Fold:
Amino acid sequence: MSSFSIAWLDLREGADFAARDKTLATQALEWLGQATDPVSPDRIIVDLGAGTGSSLRALTKLGANNIVWRLVDLDGKLLDEALRRHGKQYLIEDYQADLNIVGELPLTGTHIVSASALFDLTSAAFIDALIDRLDARKTAVYAALNYDGTTTWTPAHPLDEKVLAAFNQDQRRDKGFGPALGSACTGYLQKALENKGYTVTIKPSPWQLGAKDQPMLNELINGITAAVNEHYGLTESELDDWKKFRLTNIAEGNCTIGHWDLLALPR
Ligand SMILES: C[S@@+](CC[C@H](N)C(=O)[O-])C[C@H]1O[C@@H](n2cnc3c(N)ncnc32)[C@H](O)[C@@H]1O
Structure:
Protein backbone atom coordinates (compact mmCIF):
# COMPACT_ATOMS: atom_id res chain seq x y z
CA MET A 1 0.00 0.00 0.00
CA SER A 2 1.63 3.30 -1.01
CA SER A 3 1.55 6.38 1.23
CA PHE A 4 -1.06 8.05 -0.94
CA SER A 5 -3.05 5.07 -2.24
CA ILE A 6 -6.83 5.26 -2.06
CA ALA A 7 -6.78 2.19 0.19
CA TRP A 8 -4.40 3.82 2.71
CA LEU A 9 -6.24 7.16 2.67
CA ASP A 10 -9.52 5.29 3.29
CA LEU A 11 -7.96 3.26 6.09
CA ARG A 12 -6.76 6.32 7.98
CA GLU A 13 -9.81 8.52 7.41
CA GLY A 14 -11.77 7.39 10.50
CA ALA A 15 -8.79 8.02 12.78
CA ASP A 16 -8.16 11.34 11.04
CA PHE A 17 -11.74 12.50 11.55
CA ALA A 18 -11.75 11.43 15.20
CA ALA A 19 -8.44 13.21 15.73
CA ARG A 20 -9.33 16.55 14.12
CA ASP A 21 -9.88 19.27 16.69
CA LYS A 22 -13.58 20.00 16.22
CA THR A 23 -13.44 23.39 17.95
CA LEU A 24 -10.91 24.67 15.46
CA ALA A 25 -12.76 23.22 12.45
CA THR A 26 -16.03 24.75 13.72
CA GLN A 27 -14.30 28.09 14.25
CA ALA A 28 -13.10 27.98 10.65
CA LEU A 29 -16.66 27.36 9.46
CA GLU A 30 -18.06 30.11 11.69
CA TRP A 31 -15.55 32.54 10.22
CA LEU A 32 -16.61 31.39 6.75
CA GLY A 33 -20.28 31.90 7.70
CA GLN A 34 -19.57 35.48 8.72
CA ALA A 35 -17.88 36.05 5.38
CA THR A 36 -21.07 34.97 3.58
CA ASP A 37 -22.42 37.35 1.01
CA PRO A 38 -26.22 36.91 0.53
CA VAL A 39 -25.95 37.88 -3.15
CA SER A 40 -23.24 35.30 -3.84
CA PRO A 41 -23.55 32.67 -1.10
CA ASP A 42 -20.94 30.22 -2.36
CA ARG A 43 -17.70 30.31 -0.44
CA ILE A 44 -14.47 28.97 -1.87
CA ILE A 45 -12.24 26.48 -0.07
CA VAL A 46 -9.06 25.44 -1.85
CA ASP A 47 -7.93 22.10 -0.45
CA LEU A 48 -4.24 21.48 -1.15
CA GLY A 49 -3.13 17.86 -1.53
CA ALA A 50 -6.83 16.99 -1.41
CA GLY A 51 -6.49 13.26 -2.09
CA THR A 52 -9.96 11.74 -2.41
CA GLY A 53 -11.64 14.63 -0.58
CA SER A 54 -11.08 13.88 3.08
CA SER A 55 -11.26 17.56 4.11
CA LEU A 56 -14.45 18.01 2.10
CA ARG A 57 -16.04 15.08 3.93
CA ALA A 58 -14.80 16.17 7.36
CA LEU A 59 -15.89 19.80 7.04
CA THR A 60 -19.22 18.82 5.48
CA LYS A 61 -19.91 16.54 8.46
CA LEU A 62 -19.18 19.51 10.69
CA GLY A 63 -21.66 21.73 8.86
CA ALA A 64 -19.94 23.21 5.80
CA ASN A 65 -22.40 24.03 3.03
CA ASN A 66 -22.64 26.23 -0.04
CA ILE A 67 -18.96 25.67 -0.67
CA VAL A 68 -17.13 25.68 -3.96
CA TRP A 69 -14.43 23.08 -3.36
CA ARG A 70 -11.26 23.57 -5.37
CA LEU A 71 -9.45 20.28 -4.91
CA VAL A 72 -5.78 20.38 -5.88
CA ASP A 73 -3.62 17.28 -6.14
CA LEU A 74 -0.81 15.95 -8.29
CA ASP A 75 -2.45 12.54 -8.49
CA GLY A 76 -5.25 12.43 -11.07
CA LYS A 77 -6.52 9.06 -9.79
CA LEU A 78 -7.21 10.53 -6.36
CA LEU A 79 -9.02 13.51 -7.84
CA ASP A 80 -11.08 11.22 -10.08
CA GLU A 81 -12.07 9.28 -6.99
CA ALA A 82 -13.09 12.49 -5.21
CA LEU A 83 -15.24 13.43 -8.20
CA ARG A 84 -16.70 9.93 -8.41
CA ARG A 85 -17.71 10.11 -4.75
CA HIS A 86 -18.92 13.71 -4.58
CA GLY A 87 -19.13 15.29 -8.04
CA LYS A 88 -22.94 15.08 -8.11
CA GLN A 89 -23.54 16.40 -4.59
CA TYR A 90 -21.07 19.26 -4.27
CA LEU A 91 -19.60 21.99 -6.38
CA ILE A 92 -16.13 20.68 -7.09
CA GLU A 93 -13.44 22.18 -9.28
CA ASP A 94 -10.58 19.71 -9.62
CA TYR A 95 -7.06 20.86 -10.39
CA GLN A 96 -4.43 18.27 -11.17
CA ALA A 97 -1.36 20.33 -10.38
CA ASP A 98 1.99 20.28 -8.64
CA LEU A 99 1.72 22.39 -5.49
CA ASN A 100 5.32 23.45 -5.98
CA ILE A 101 4.22 25.70 -8.80
CA VAL A 102 2.80 28.02 -6.19
CA GLY A 103 2.27 30.92 -8.58
CA GLU A 104 -0.28 28.87 -10.53
CA LEU A 105 -2.36 27.59 -7.61
CA PRO A 106 -6.04 28.55 -8.06
CA LEU A 107 -6.20 30.90 -5.08
CA THR A 108 -8.17 33.77 -6.62
CA GLY A 109 -11.17 34.67 -4.46
CA THR A 110 -10.37 31.96 -1.91
CA HIS A 111 -11.91 32.22 1.54
CA ILE A 112 -10.05 29.30 3.14
CA VAL A 113 -6.93 27.47 2.07
CA SER A 114 -7.17 24.07 3.71
CA ALA A 115 -4.96 20.99 3.84
CA SER A 116 -4.84 17.80 5.84
CA ALA A 117 -1.86 15.55 6.41
CA LEU A 118 0.14 17.68 4.00
CA PHE A 119 2.41 20.27 5.58
CA ASP A 120 4.78 17.79 7.26
CA LEU A 121 5.70 16.63 3.74
CA THR A 122 6.49 20.15 2.61
CA SER A 123 9.47 22.45 3.02
CA ALA A 124 10.11 25.88 4.49
CA ALA A 125 10.55 27.23 0.95
CA PHE A 126 7.11 25.91 -0.09
CA ILE A 127 5.39 27.40 2.97
CA ASP A 128 7.10 30.77 2.46
CA ALA A 129 6.05 30.87 -1.20
CA LEU A 130 2.47 29.84 -0.39
CA ILE A 131 2.04 32.39 2.38
CA ASP A 132 3.50 35.03 0.14
CA ARG A 133 0.54 34.49 -2.20
CA LEU A 134 -2.13 34.75 0.50
CA ASP A 135 -4.12 37.88 1.20
CA ALA A 136 -3.94 38.01 5.02
CA ARG A 137 -7.02 40.27 5.14
CA LYS A 138 -9.29 37.90 3.22
CA THR A 139 -8.05 34.31 3.20
CA ALA A 140 -7.95 32.00 6.22
CA VAL A 141 -5.75 28.90 6.52
CA TYR A 142 -6.97 25.65 8.07
CA ALA A 143 -4.26 22.97 8.22
CA ALA A 144 -5.21 19.74 9.97
CA LEU A 145 -3.26 16.67 11.04
CA ASN A 146 0.31 17.83 10.89
CA TYR A 147 2.60 15.16 12.39
CA ASP A 148 4.55 16.34 15.46
CA GLY A 149 7.19 13.63 15.89
CA THR A 150 5.68 11.95 18.96
CA THR A 151 4.53 8.33 19.13
CA THR A 152 3.81 6.24 22.20
CA TRP A 153 3.11 2.53 22.09
CA THR A 154 1.55 0.25 24.68
CA PRO A 155 3.00 -2.20 25.58
CA ALA A 156 6.44 -0.60 25.30
CA HIS A 157 9.35 -2.21 23.47
CA PRO A 158 13.01 -1.35 24.22
CA LEU A 159 13.55 -0.18 20.61
CA ASP A 160 10.54 2.16 20.43
CA GLU A 161 12.63 5.31 20.90
CA LYS A 162 15.30 4.25 18.44
CA VAL A 163 12.71 3.37 15.79
CA LEU A 164 10.91 6.68 16.36
CA ALA A 165 14.14 8.68 16.08
CA ALA A 166 14.89 6.91 12.79
CA PHE A 167 11.34 7.47 11.52
CA ASN A 168 11.48 11.16 12.40
CA GLN A 169 14.77 11.46 10.57
CA ASP A 170 13.16 9.84 7.53
CA GLN A 171 10.30 12.34 7.78
CA ARG A 172 12.81 15.12 6.98
CA ARG A 173 13.71 13.53 3.66
CA ASP A 174 12.68 15.34 0.50
CA LYS A 175 9.07 14.34 -0.21
CA GLY A 176 8.87 16.33 -3.41
CA PHE A 177 9.05 19.85 -1.94
CA GLY A 178 12.72 20.05 -0.95
CA PRO A 179 13.94 19.02 2.53
CA ALA A 180 10.73 18.20 4.42
CA LEU A 181 9.87 20.03 7.63
CA GLY A 182 8.44 16.83 9.13
CA SER A 183 7.57 17.36 12.79
CA ALA A 184 8.77 20.99 12.68
CA CYS A 185 6.03 21.99 10.23
CA THR A 186 3.41 23.29 12.67
CA GLY A 187 5.86 25.61 14.42
CA TYR A 188 7.19 26.87 11.10
CA LEU A 189 3.73 27.43 9.63
CA GLN A 190 2.49 29.18 12.76
CA LYS A 191 5.39 31.63 12.86
CA ALA A 192 5.24 32.36 9.14
CA LEU A 193 1.49 33.05 9.30
CA GLU A 194 1.85 35.25 12.40
CA ASN A 195 4.58 37.22 10.64
CA LYS A 196 2.14 37.76 7.78
CA GLY A 197 -0.37 39.27 10.24
CA TYR A 198 -2.68 36.33 10.95
CA THR A 199 -4.14 35.34 14.32
CA VAL A 200 -3.08 31.72 14.66
CA THR A 201 -4.46 29.02 16.96
CA ILE A 202 -3.08 25.49 17.17
CA LYS A 203 -4.68 22.47 18.87
CA PRO A 204 -3.48 18.90 19.29
CA SER A 205 -5.11 16.28 17.08
CA PRO A 206 -3.47 12.96 17.96
CA TRP A 207 -4.39 9.64 16.43
CA GLN A 208 -5.59 7.39 19.27
CA LEU A 209 -5.34 3.91 17.83
CA GLY A 210 -6.43 0.70 19.50
CA ALA A 211 -8.02 -2.67 18.86
CA LYS A 212 -10.63 -1.18 16.49
CA ASP A 213 -7.85 0.10 14.22
CA GLN A 214 -6.06 -3.20 13.60
CA PRO A 215 -5.87 -2.95 9.77
CA MET A 216 -4.53 0.60 10.02
CA LEU A 217 -2.02 -0.33 12.72
CA ASN A 218 -0.87 -3.24 10.61
CA GLU A 219 -0.16 -0.90 7.66
CA LEU A 220 1.41 1.67 9.94
CA ILE A 221 3.85 -0.80 11.50
CA ASN A 222 4.79 -2.15 8.06
CA GLY A 223 5.16 1.41 6.76
CA ILE A 224 7.39 2.52 9.64
CA THR A 225 9.57 -0.56 9.26
CA ALA A 226 9.90 -0.04 5.51
CA ALA A 227 10.77 3.65 5.98
CA VAL A 228 13.61 3.02 8.43
CA ASN A 229 15.03 -0.25 7.17
CA GLU A 230 18.14 1.36 5.68
CA HIS A 231 20.42 4.29 6.51
CA TYR A 232 19.28 4.83 10.09
CA GLY A 233 21.57 2.54 12.10
CA LEU A 234 19.02 -0.15 13.04
CA THR A 235 20.11 -3.71 12.29
CA GLU A 236 17.84 -6.04 10.35
CA SER A 237 17.37 -8.25 13.39
CA GLU A 238 16.52 -5.29 15.64
CA LEU A 239 13.88 -4.10 13.19
CA ASP A 240 12.54 -7.60 12.73
CA ASP A 241 12.26 -8.00 16.47
CA TRP A 242 10.46 -4.65 16.84
CA LYS A 243 8.08 -5.35 13.96
CA LYS A 244 7.16 -8.84 15.19
CA PHE A 245 6.52 -7.52 18.71
CA ARG A 246 4.38 -4.65 17.43
CA LEU A 247 2.33 -6.86 15.08
CA THR A 248 1.81 -9.46 17.81
CA ASN A 249 0.50 -6.81 20.19
CA ILE A 250 -1.85 -5.00 17.82
CA ALA A 251 -5.02 -6.46 19.29
CA GLU A 252 -4.26 -5.73 22.94
CA GLY A 253 -2.06 -2.67 22.65
CA ASN A 254 -2.59 0.90 21.61
CA CYS A 255 -0.74 3.72 20.00
CA THR A 256 -0.90 7.51 20.13
CA ILE A 257 0.62 9.52 17.31
CA GLY A 258 0.83 13.27 17.76
CA HIS A 259 -0.51 15.77 15.25
CA TRP A 260 -1.55 19.42 15.43
CA ASP A 261 -4.31 21.33 13.70
CA LEU A 262 -3.83 24.99 12.89
CA LEU A 263 -6.26 27.77 12.11
CA ALA A 264 -5.03 31.15 10.91
CA LEU A 265 -7.66 33.87 10.69
CA PRO A 266 -7.38 37.34 9.22
CA ARG A 267 -7.25 39.99 11.98
C1 LIG B 1 -0.98 12.21 3.08
S1 LIG B 1 -1.90 12.53 1.65
C2 LIG B 1 -3.29 13.44 2.30
C3 LIG B 1 -4.48 13.42 1.41
C4 LIG B 1 -5.73 14.09 1.98
N1 LIG B 1 -5.49 15.48 2.29
C5 LIG B 1 -6.21 13.35 3.20
O1 LIG B 1 -6.13 13.90 4.31
O2 LIG B 1 -6.69 12.21 3.05
C6 LIG B 1 -0.96 13.80 0.82
C7 LIG B 1 -1.57 14.25 -0.50
O3 LIG B 1 -0.73 15.24 -1.09
C8 LIG B 1 -0.62 14.99 -2.48
N2 LIG B 1 0.66 15.56 -2.94
C9 LIG B 1 1.90 15.20 -2.55
N3 LIG B 1 2.82 15.92 -3.19
C10 LIG B 1 2.14 16.79 -4.01
C11 LIG B 1 2.52 17.81 -4.92
N4 LIG B 1 3.79 18.11 -5.14
N5 LIG B 1 1.54 18.49 -5.56
C12 LIG B 1 0.23 18.19 -5.36
N6 LIG B 1 -0.20 17.23 -4.50
C13 LIG B 1 0.75 16.55 -3.83
C14 LIG B 1 -0.67 13.47 -2.60
O4 LIG B 1 -1.04 13.04 -3.91
C15 LIG B 1 -1.71 13.13 -1.53
O5 LIG B 1 -3.01 13.16 -2.04
About this structure: The pocket of S-adenosylmethionine is lined by residues 4, 9, 16, 49-51, 54-55, 73-75, 78, 98-100, 116-118, 176 (CB under 6 Å).
